[in-house]
Amino acid sequence: MEELFLDAEIRKEIGRGKVKALKDKGFIPAVVYAEGKEALALKLSHRQLVQLVHHHRIEGVVINLNIKDDKSEDNGSASDSRSHKKQKSRSCLIKEIQHDPVHGEILHVDFNQISLTKAIKVNIPVEAKGEPIGVKQEGGSLEHILWELEVECLPTSIPKNIEIDVTQLKMGESIHVKDIIVPQGVKVLNDPGAIILSVAAPMKEEAPAEAVEGEAAQEPEVIKEKKEVPAEGAEESPEEKKEIKEKK
Length: 248
Hints:
The chain has helices spanning 16-24, 46-55, 78-82, 133-136, 238-247; strands at residues 3-10, 27-33, 40-45, 62-69, 86-99, 106-113, 120-129, 141-144, 148-153, 162-165, 174-176, 187-188, 195-200. By secondary structure, the chain is an alpha+beta fold. 16% of the residues are buried.
């Protein structure tokens, strides 16, 4: 199980104006949600969080929040004076990370507190390993249909990823959910018949239709309106006389 650690502090800055001031000091607001408990407002180091996001896959990974409890300083007992700030570690999963739609900066983080002894549902990435026979020898292409699988397991048993060996996959063959082997204690929740990976035949390009030999391209015939000419000696009608006069 991949396990990460992140420092946090109790956040007293609540409200849009105070949150802005918090960000100016290098912190990011966060909230921890726990079943049956009130949500806990926290603040995280912007620098530490960005480093964690850039160097690790944080979705579906247990993050231990080391929370500095400011309340421990309120009573002036001797034991509290010797230990500056107590730390409470909470095992959490990231529920949501809110980003700025323009600049992409992290604005807020939501955590779900979990129990290490209770099974949870998480999405695990799928990675293809090797080059299929159907691609290397038969000219096909590997199609990756499912990039993640939903699994249920204890937080201590969450796999980093699920690797699938595709080297023996031939043209037209597929690997389904029911075909994969997962670590003990991990249950896949996807449809067993769902296709994860397959090798498809290359797309054939249709050649343009060739013109039949001897057949020449014909221009569409333009039909011009024929004007009736009065027969010789025939008297022109008043309407025709008027038309001729107007043309002159």
